[in-house]
Fold each of these.
Amino acid sequence: MKILNIHGYQAKAENSVFYALQNNSYEPVSLQLDYESQSPEEVLHLLTEAYSANHCEAVTGSSMGGFFAMQINALYHCPAVLINPFTTPFIAFPDIPEFMRGYMRLTANLAEFEPASAYAVIGEKDDMIQTHDFIKDLLGAEHCVLVPDGGHPGSTLPLEEIFREHGRVFFGN
């Protein structure tokens, strides 16, 4: 199964999520994105092209990538796994007003987000993201895997084990 994997801000395309998916016999498709120089609309365009061209069936997204994974879920009605998702990226770029407005425009797409087909992996010691309670309420406890000692980076989460134990539920395979 091909899964579009979307990295976080200033992270690498081949990240801990990429390798955890690969080590569980999934085929991750990852693009190297530059959230500082590519507009939010451009990032979404690149991701939708990659999702379609590679015949992906699901999406994962870490931190800022979680926002875009929600976008892909809203557009393609596919399974999504959000890893410490940053759901309010419009507050990340106050010095670049056009990016802030771009993220706000994309937020409208989330009216089509399907919580029933989404799951979250949340590090409970994540000191970077303050919106995890929102995600827990949106998805419901049964759609959240909480990692008590997990921090913000995916490397602090037992992702390989989580995908091994929950992959069939997450991705429906």
Note: The chain has a mean pLDDT of 95.
Amino acid sequence: MRRTRVLSLLLALIMSITAILCIEYSTIGSIEANAAGGTIASAKCVLTDAANVQYSATLSGNPKTDDGQLYLYQLKTYEYAIPAGAQPIASCAATTKPVMNFALGGRESNGRLYAKYALVAKKGGVNTMLGAPQYISNPEILATHTHREPRPAKTTQHDELTNLYITGSGEANMPTGYCHHTIQVLNRGGNGVTNPKAVMPDTHPVVPQTFMLNAATDSGIDGLVRDMTNYAANSKGQDFIIGNEVNERVWNYIAWTSWEDYMNEYAQAFRVCYTAIKSQNADAKVYISLDQNWNRNRPAGHVEYYKYMDCADFLTAFANVINAGGNIDWDLAIHPYTVPLTYAKFWDMSGAPDGAYCAKQIKGNSMMSFQNMSMVPAFMSKAGMKNRSGQMRDIIINEFGVSNAQGADVQAAALCAAYYSFTKNANVTQFMYLSNAGYGVDSTLTPKAQEVFNALGTPNEANYMNWAKSYIGISNWGQVIK
């Protein structure tokens, strides 16, 4: 009896912990109810010109206050409560539609451009926030180095993408022959730009990892601002990818925290980078980077639960955090490889390791590949995912390769299928092929596949597309591509 009772209590405890962990995704970016009355229905903080900022909000009812006033407090990006001793930067009479104006000042990393602003009512002598603090959402008004050159619809990582390992110095040399239009912002660790919560594990995967960017300290923010301002103003870079496959926490050495904490850390760093870039180049695009784990929904307690958040959940959580603080025009970079990576003959999975399982992952949209990639634009067309203008965000394929292990013809045919999938989705604006022989997958192009790659996007494309369909044994791509 005692043993049964102990087991029952233990099971109840496990179920309680699991329930708590399982709600992490849904609570990210939520706004706690407050006792002040008149919670925020909507709010925004925008530059009215290069020198002035306006905060405005609509409250759900008349706010209850000690003194009939509402106050605006300036917080750092990593602050989630009003610091002791802080003074408001603006105030107005309590109303359901408060509007407050204040000067921007300079563009320093510790100044107002990179801050967030909390509407506060005094209740019982306590400062009570009425909703989520708002960031300045239109830093592009300040841009003085705006430029936009045509981007190729098809290229390779070597030709178009530069991995930028930041240092926080803001003094990097940027020869135009090296710095391409697309820059992926990474951090090898060290200096002030490494997040203080990022820890090197005793044992880590073979793949090279990068440390989470640091917007959790003043020095980290300053380093991000220095580097991003420098590159946005002085390089050919016009598209910036902040991190690599950021839904994979082990890539960032920060798998030892809650998903909510992880999301806040990344969103803080992304917002700082975005503001620094857009305040220099108004036409720049700033992307988040995700892998191909689309909708796997690992439960709490599963070995992979703290390894990654699937893309659909990550996008939802990230959008919730960003929208709560003021929507900005972030964009999306994805990696729709074959499943598994080492097997290119996707139309016949009989020869693939765990072929039946992999085929099921694609059919059920658990994993993202070029075979089912139409689900990504469909997901991004949802209202909560759209940009400030209500338009779907830009999508690029910044990493994709096809194994050559099954032969030259298989690789060439799979490449045709992938290109068809990418080009039939109008919001996919660029495709970068990764020719790589490392990490267990050789995606270097055989002469046959190189011939196909060169023809894609040219008048000769149709000949190769027809050949590929015949080789696969189909009459139209809809038979193998969703």
Note: The chain is about 30% helix and 20% strand.
Amino acid sequence: MAALHEMGTYRSRNGQRHSQRNTTTYIDGNVVRHIQTAPNRSPQQKNRTRASVNTRRNRERALNMTMPYVVFLTAATIATVFLCVNYLKLQAAGTTYRKEIATLESQLSTARLANDNAYEDAVSSVNMENVKEIAVKQLGMVYADEGQVITYNSQDGDYIRQYGEIPTE
């Protein structure tokens, strides 16, 4: 390739110095321009060229950003960020609630265990023979006779409320 130097001189590829005093400049080497003729195009290539022109126009239109489009994109971006932040907040709240539920379930199982232990202690501390003896001897209670027990079938629940005297018959 030819290289231009200061003072209007340049060196060619083979290293010879040339000056630019003449109005015509000659360049040796591979930088010489060759005249090329346009190739003959077939109809298919012309259609492709038209299609590529249309494609280029569509791409240029797509790259055109009008003000309403920018506003729409901005609103969509803000809405997306808002939804993502709310989703993350809900995820964090869900995690917190799950931890709190696990803590409360642990406390409940501890309280149930303590309650069951206290109930077993209460039941085991009561001697039914001792209760029977106190009831009969100190309080004067007696067993019911055969005619004193009345059986009643209830349809409504587990207990009966008595609002009046039970008939003897």
Note: The longest strand covers residues 9-11.
